[in-house]
Amino acid sequence: MRPSRSSAGIVARACAILLGSALLAGCQSKPAIRTHSVAIRGFRYLPETLTVAVGDTVRWVNEDLVPHTVTAKKSAGFDSRDMAIQGRWQYVTREPVTVDYVCDYHPSMRAVLVVR
Prior knowledge:
Elements: H1 5-28, E1 35-41, E2 44-46, E3 49-52, E4 57-62, E5 71-72, E6 88-92, E7 97-102, E8 110-115
Parallel strand pairs: 1-4, 3-8
Antiparallel strand pairs: 1-2, 4-6, 5-7, 7-8
């Protein structure tokens, strides 16, 4: 016995709905990649603790009147090297990790980057 046109249409619509739902769920499960800013001002990193997602970009801006660095304390971390006055440097996060970082010139400047 052949399916009627109406039952074939119902099956086709159900398949389309399921496929659309699966595609939409896949799109919604990926968080948008963001850019976060850290100001270097008054010999401090602001904010001192920043939590971001894997794939996000963190951008540091030196607003002080002296050079600074953004140097991770872990050997596999990051290092901006010398950041001039009004200099900018950015880092794209690649894996979940918590990294303490400092300024090589001013070791009392400390902050934490948490990547989830």
